[in-house]
Write a structure and sequence with these properties.
Length: 195
Amino acid sequence: MKNRALIWNLVAMISCILIFSCDDANDDDGGQCWDENWLIGTWEGNTPSTIEPYSNTKIRIVFTEVNLERIDTIPGNTSTVWSYNGTFTWDVDSATWSMQFRHTNHPQPDYNVIGFNCTTLNTATMNLVSLRVRDTLASAEPSHVINLDYELISYDGKVPEYIDFYGDVEIYYNGNQLEAQYPPQEGSMIRMTKK
């Protein structure tokens, strides 16, 4: 019984060190949310060349405005949600398709909204970007459904130089669905950089 308690204490201590650093004296900005304007501007990238269909498809996202949606206090932590206005463009170089996303669509799930959620975790933050863009007309041909996510635990409070989105893109042509899946692993995500 004594050994079991010792093992659980060691597991808890190692988890604390690995996940939260358990150092309240840490002077970095890891526990501070990124400024909500970090996404404002133009981001561009290409789908991976190794994933079909839609390999090397150029994407552009222009963020123009941000809106605070809510702040939730969790014991010892804060979760803040913002959503954005802007334009998502698929296949920039050829058969261009664009759709506006608006903060007024929040909290409707899956309906032309891009949200950023930051949750403080002691000396780190959990940062999530959720992108849900689709055609607003049921009769659109082809019809696009884009569901992408990004997540990063930040220990230094610095915004990233790029975003690696994972998720899926579905495009419907004449009743047929073509879908590309981008799993959350190196080389399979859609990397977007700020221009």
